[in-house]
Amino acid sequence: MIQIDPEKIIQLEFFLNSVPKEYLIGILKNRANTTDLKALLFKIKNKKIPKPFKLLEHLSVSKLIQFIIENNMIKLDEAKQHYFQFRDSESPIFYLYKFQEDNFGNFLDIPKKLKNFVQVKKIDIHHKFVDVSTSDIMKGVPKKYKDFRILNFNYYKEDTVLEITFEYLEKINYINEKYEPKYVYDLKSGFLWLEKSNQLAILKCHNETMVESIIRLIGEFFNSSYWRFRLREEIVDKLFDKQEIIKNSLRANKYTNPELFETIIIRDVEFSKKSENPKFDFIIDYERTRSSYNTKIQGFRSKIKISVAESGKISLLGKSIRLDRCRDWLIELLRKIIEIQGSFLSLGNIETYLKSSDYIFRTNLFLKLKNNTAK
């Protein structure tokens, strides 16, 4: 066994833990010595393995990583590149927005202008982006988030979709062995997709506080108001097959019936079928706030578990989610939602239309209608 510096082992393990299992298996198949692989599998299985490569899929990720490191099959720089490639691919959560005004301007000019705009911004103690010249009354106090920076810009779909990748630091508190409160900063990453024709924004970020700060920053850059999509069941049921529901989070309207439970969570792969039973009629008194599905997404070999939240976010569960497939799927999904909302309005279903709109949009609309002139 090759001797490797312990610090290097720690780094390799960290980077490779972001790599999908099938990719690790590919590294082994391309670089492993058959004799060494047989020896490893004999040690694990306690029996001779005539065809070792066939058994790789049955090994744990930790065992695969251990073998790759111990046999010096990958350099640190290569492992780091794999980390950058896959770090945002594990169970990503997407926050879905639409800008109100078409202020994108020349779509190809955005990278240069946005980079210059962000360079003169900093995050304050309230987690908001402010001008770097703004006086800091809490100067010296460690901030929860800091050092936001844009990494790259990439265009897709004939330059109609722009991807903006970014990083920032998040403060992590801990207590040491002397019971002294300490903190370190942990590097976080994410990205934003902007779609030109419908002024859509899809944001993938680790923390919802930063999600709100970043979308506010982008709204300021475009000088445009925005709203987050409301994924109410009236819309979701037109997008996904109810037969594929595996989990539901339900909320009662306590003002309508204070006797109801405030929330109910139901896990059952046969939810749709069983809910037709009259003894479950009480479910009608509840609104669905979150639902999970096992569904087919174009470009994925098998069904993907997704979670859809009324608050305007969709998460996909998996170790190595194909982000390019997610991008195309989500943009098409938002286009469909816009069409569905438009159909509510054209059919005169005003109540459903308003409920399916963002809170800020509904509030602004209410103020416009308050004088009853546009009723």
What share of the residues lie within helices?
Answer: 25-40%
Strand content: 25-35%
Coarse structural class = alpha+beta
Nearest-integer average pLDDT: 87
By DSSP (H or I, 4+ residues per run), the number of helices equals 12
What's the number of extended β-strand segments? 13
Multimeric status of the protein: single chain
Which residues form runs of ≥5 with pLDDT under 50? none
- Alpha-carbon Rg, integer: 25 Å
Reported for the largest beta sheet, the result is: 11 strands, antiparallel
Give an overview of the whole structure:
The chain is an alpha+beta fold and 375 residues long. It has three domains: 6-86, no CATH class; 93-228; 233-310, no CATH class. The protein is 35% helix and 26% strand. It is built from twelve helices and 13 strands. The protein has helices spanning 6-16, 21-31, 34-45, 61-70, 76-86, 110-119, 208-222, 233-239, 271-274, 323-346, 350-355, 359-369; strands spanning 93-99, 121-123, 129-131, 145-156, 161-175, 181-195, 200-204, 226-228, 245-252, 263-267, 286-295, 304-309, 313-317. The strands form two sheets. Strands 1, 4, 5, 6, 7, 8, 9, 10, 11, 12 and 13 form an eleven-stranded antiparallel beta sheet that branches. The protein has a two-stranded antiparallel sheet with strand order 2-3. The longest helix has 24 residues, at 323-346. The chain is globular and about 70 Å long.
